[in-house]
Design brief:
Layout (H helix, E strand, L loop, with lengths): L16 E5 L2 E4 L2 E4 L2 E4 L3 E8 L4 H24 L2 H24 L4 E7 L2 E8 L2 H23 L1
Helix pairs in contact: 1-2
Amino acid sequence: MSVDHLSRPGRSPGFTAYYHQRGVAVTDKWLVVHGSRFMIAELHHLERARGPLPSPARSSLYLGLAVMGVAAPVALVFSTPLAWVIAALAAAAALGVMMFSCRRWPASYQMWADYGSRPTLLFETGDGQEFGQVSRALIRAVEHRRRGQLI
């Protein structure tokens, strides 16, 4: 069962589709993410998380911290107004580069769950809006499935 075979809500009487876009589909029975399928009934302990920073952002953070770590002691040793101005400008530039890189290369959004008995990464994206839509759809599907089991 691939995403291409899932119809929009209301077109198929067998299931309810909560989300169906960009290779991801959430129904009351399945989560399909770019060809990988997960049964909703087997998902437990859903968790949202942020992934690690990509290499460019991490590198700029380390470089910025190194610049600030060198600029402050140098300004303290020389203790002249010019040294403090240069240290402040270096720290401001490092901070600007760090902020830019963290916005340009943000950490990914991840949805995890226990599938079977193992922690499993279900879905990952860099788009916060898409992540919100998929995670809400998945939570609705899991809640719907649990309510159906209680009846």
